[in-house]
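Morning run. Coffee first, then this:
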Amino acid sequence: MTNVILSVFFVLTIIYIVPFLIYGLASVVAGLKSPEGASPARFLVSVLISKIGTAIAFVLIFHFARNSLSGQWMLYAFLWWLMFVMGEIGQTIGPNYTWKEAVAGILSETIYLPLSAYVTNWLIAG
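And here it is:
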């Protein structure tokens, strides 16, 4: 159980920090703007709360399917990446979300999902 909790902590750290680095870079390079109407602190807390749920689901699904997924961390990351990329594309159809934001999201997911899957596999299946 300790490894599951550690895995959730490390995955949360990875999926919380990587997007800020990518979106920060995208704001400098591509002029990406922060969301309007919310204070930076409120925005950061809202992102943290949504990432907590993602980290818990990511780790627990792997944990419960570890007999099948052990060593298959790249496949596991790809399945999550596919789901998130579809979400990014779907968000661009709606209001207040641009392709710049979607591309930044896809780039960050391309980095943090394999890292998260590797760490989860290492702690839970390894």
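The chain is about 85% helix and 0% strand. Good start to the day.
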